[in-house]
Fold:
Amino acid sequence: MTITDLTYKSIEMRDWEGMETFLSRMNVLDFRKIQTSLRKNYLCKLDNDLFWETYYHLIKYKKQAFLACIVAIEQLAKEKKIDFNNDYVKQISLYLHGNHPDAVKSLLSMAIPLLVTETQIEGLFDAFDLDVRERIALLLKTDNPLTYFVLFKNLKHIQDNKVMMKKCCLFIHNKKTDLAKNMACIVKEYFGIHEATGVRSLNIEQYELNYIDRDKDTFINVLQGKRPKL
Structure:
């Protein structure tokens, strides 16, 4: 067996000391190969529990090398098999918050766009114990319909802070994509952020805005420039 095969065998057996031993013995080329293989081919095939346990031990061993392996959650997310209510997710959160706080933002920024439901996104935020402002800050950097819907719901928690709401509205608008411009319009008109000059108006009646928080599909229809179904 190759040293790579032995490393994978250690993971399957949950022999974390063995995994670290084999990783430490690799030359530079083999180590780079296994970084790529873990991220793109191997971790995505694990079940939820073994994925999080493996990921925890990988980032504890060498965070800088393996943090990006979080992208392997994409398959679990698509199959609706991902579960953040897991002891190792909590340990990852505690470890990174306690030792590498900047890595928390990096991990979440990579993970959020790969999730496919509101429940998954909020579950990730809960697992990493983020307050509403931290959630908004991360969501503001995304640009897809689902994350804009989750952002919209989180903005309701700070809607009385007009200064912050204006900053959020203009930040979204300045991303310049069609979706971002529509989202900025929704924020401006729904929350009454009239100070956000330069943000154009949506071509819908004011009363129709009352329907956009009815459900995700209605919100996304408006976000994509369609009229809400009343």
DSSP finds 13 helices and no strands in the chain. The chain has two domains: 1-130, 134-230. The longest helix spans residues 48-66. The chain has a mean pLDDT of 93.
